[in-house]
């Protein structure tokens, strides 16, 4: 039996190799420094911090910013993260980022080693803010900043002079998706902090329960309640039901209270789920998260089957695959900031490989072994780190060749250390238009990445391909931690 499994395993690896000859013939770097990439991925979050920076801040070209957020509303909303290359705090993607960062720590914390403390700091920077944003009953502050004014300017976060508009949802103006995602983040973080900060974990979990109750009691999309502020930037396209299921799943994992499991199963009982996972669509993540506990469900195969559908729609050797790959081997789906797909989907595949060991998944006429997932995930990580047709790392600061002109205000403008006089709204435009490299290294940033044909032009104005975001990096923390010890 062992020999048979070995033969099947080798055949599956050969299929992957044949599909992606560029990845496996000549471009593979067997010596990637995953520990260095891991350190840098966590360091990236320091470059996205908003608020009063601590004395331990390592990216020192960043300074204090947005110290009056929420003041006009009589609430403290200082802190948190800017989502991308702008100076806005969008609650929906920020919460998803914290959920994935917490999940990275839960699943792969044993491999974080000396970076565990830095990962904890990065997570708590976000969860402290989410606690502030949910401090009032039946009210959630979901955004700080005017996206239209902000996107009309090119200025450092330290210099912001645009309106710091505060956007919230409440009983009269519901936002189930953003509230449930925040509940998921707080519940996941409570698990991540349980062993090291039990009192803080208790606080996170209690708040998660309260926010989830609000999300379910007052149902509706924030598209309708506060749409002009959040759309088209982080408009919810998949509906809020997936976030409700996602939040319930994390609360079940954190509390073991079966009412949350029952809620997730009943709400999620649909014949077909898309194989999607990102800040907007949580379906594949739910399938993976709940597949671990599928034996406790009345229908013991339901979430296993959904996880299997995800696998068969994703891995390259599956005859029913719907996910496309670039000629160089990168997972690719239409839309901006494609790098969310290989990072988030790779994270799910790696988690599944740990859940199911050597159990096969049936994809039509082909059986896929979870150990093969690891090879698929490694091909994605190595592509991102430089094993691609351009031999370019898409992580800023990693390797000899990486993007120099990322779409990021703070990175592209001289820091206050070298240019203490502030930039007003349009005064940074010449730096935006310049072809010079960014003066400040946003170490660890992942950008939108190459186009479907593996081309990348390192153009600051091409935000779809050159802008970094927090939710691209969070799943990579867990993946890189794993490969640091298991390459």
UniProtKB/TrEMBL annotation:
Name by which UniProt lists this protein: Endoglucanase
Domain of life: Eukaryota
Annotated keywords: Carbohydrate metabolism, Cellulose degradation, Glycosidase, Hydrolase, Membrane, Polysaccharide degradation, Transmembrane, Transmembrane helix
Organism annotation: Dioscorea cayennensis subsp. rotundata
Record-level Gene Ontology MF annotations: cellulase activity
BP term (GO), one: cellulose catabolic process
One Pfam family this sequence matches: Glyco_hydro_9
Catalyzed reactions: Endohydrolysis of (1->4)-beta-D-glucosidic linkages in cellulose, lichenin and cereal beta-D-glucans
Keyword DNA damage attached: no
Organism lineage: Eukaryota, Viridiplantae, Streptophyta, Embryophyta, Tracheophyta
Entries under InterPro entries matching the protein: 6-hairpin_glycosidase_sf (IPR008928), 6hp_glycosidase-like_sf (IPR012341), Glyco_hydro_9 (IPR001701), Glyco_hydro_9_His_AS (IPR018221)
Top enzyme class: hydrolase
Family named by the database record: Belongs to the glycosyl hydrolase 9 (cellulase E) family.
Active site feature: 407
Originating gene: LOC120258573
